[in-house]
Amino acid sequence: MNAPRTASSLRPATGALMSVEEAAILVKSGGWYSVAAEEALLKRLPRGHWIGGSIPYFVGQDGGRTTREQVFVTTLPHAPGHAPTLRWYDADALASVCTDAPANGYTLLIIPAFSDTHSRFAREAPQYEDMYLKPLLGWIAGIHLDDLGKKAPVVINGETGEVDGARALVMHVPLPDTQYARLDIVNLFEQGSGDRIRFTESGFHAHECLVNGKLVNFAEYLKVNAIDTRLPLVADYSGAMINVSFKGVDEADRRVDFYAPVFDDTEYRIAKPVPDYGAALAGALPADAAHTAWSCNCILNYLYSELEGKRTGPITGPMTFGEVAYQLLNQTMVTLSIDDA
Fold first, then answer.
1. Chain centroid to CA 233
2. For the whole prediction, is pTM greater than 0.85?
3. What is the CA radius of gyration of the chain?
């Protein structure tokens, strides 16, 4: 009689949670990988062709899970005989990330949260040369929410073991001419019809802002108007809805913190409410989700949809401090599919 399959043996195409020992065997066996885990676990992995970032939140093969003891690994599809390349980029060099990309393939990017590179990428990515012509995807490395202010997010180059909390790490992945990479974005939010909000300075924090042209303290505005900060700020970039998620409100400092920078030349509105967050997320998954090759999802979708122990269809992946589908996103899911040309 055949032995039943265990949950640990079920490894979706988008990746799976596993022990450090299992992950070590996998990365030593050859292939190219995306890895996510606590920093201490990433440092225990052997050298290999992998790109890693810190985070302890996942939707794994058994559903949503917060773990400081397991590693999430995804095998990355690439063209046989054409090895992907790993490369560090600082905030200045990142402008060439798309021109450095393969003519046919995709580029996987991991940036440590709250770094200068994170902020610069949010602002400058839409103007990069060849942006939107070559698939660029990835995520913002984070930490356990209990460790905010105590630890810093990092990325790690699996080929060299180098760990960095300031630069972005990129894997440029070529594909055969018979295939192409496709990115999809699941965004539940659009601008509401409420107040027009502009900030007096750019950054990951805000004290003052202009609400319908009137200068106010933003933390006080949120409190007085009973704003549900589970709903992000949304900017309309020529029809593309770009979210900026709330990280928290420091009432003592009368300061509002964000997971992505706000900009002083951009108009925002609070997003329209989503009546059933969990159901909306489940209903918005791509129709061909079973063919997804890689994915990440926002930590806030994880928290507000109460994904602990729950699945997101056939899609697994790390829960992140920001998502990349060409440019920086918040409160979205990003998926990569490899289609036949």
1. 17
2. yes
3. 20
Beta bridge partners of 262: 203
Instruction: Output the six-digit token pair for 182.
Output: 């496709």
pLDDT digits (tens, 9 = 90+) for 201-215: 999 999 999 999 999
CA distance linking residue 172 with residue 94, whole number of Å:
13
Is the distance from CB of 340 to CB of 293 less than 8 angstroms?
Answer: no
Cα gap 155→109, rounded to integer Å: 10
- In our burial notation (b when 16+ CB lie closer than 10 A, e otherwise), range 268-300 reads bbbbeebeebeeebeeebbeebeebbbbbbbbb
The DSSP line for 127-172 is GSTTTTTS-EEEEEE---GGGBTTB---EEETTT--EESSSEEEEE
Instruction: Tell the residue number behind the tokens 């090895």, with chain if given.
Output: 83
| Domain extents in the chain | 13-186+278-340, 197-270
244 in helix, strand or coil? strand
Pair of tokens at residue 62: 């058994």
Q: Reduce the secondary structure of 12-47 to three states and give it as a string.
A: CCCCEEECHHHHHHHHHCCCCEEEEECHHHHHHCCC
Q: How far is 333 from 325, CA to CA, in rounded Å?
A: 9
As beta bridge partners, residue 258 has 246
Q: What is the pLDDT of residue 91?
A: 96
User: What is the rounded distance in angstroms from the CA atom of residue 95 to the CA atom of residue 58?
Assistant: 30
What is the widest separation between alpha-carbon atoms in the chain? 74
Q: Between the CA of residue 248 and those of 56, 210, 256, 259, 332, what are the distances in Å?
A: 19, 19, 6, 9, 18
21 CB-near residues (< 8 Å, 6+ apart):
none
319 neighbors 57 (Cβ within 8 angstroms): yes
Q: Do the beta carbons of residue 334 and residue 181 sit within 8 Å?
A: no
Measured between alpha carbons, how far is 279 from 113 in angstroms, rounded to an integer?
29
pLDDT surpasses 70 at 11: yes
User: pLDDT band at 10, cuts 50/70/90?
Assistant: low
β pairing state of 57-60 and 317-320: antiparallel
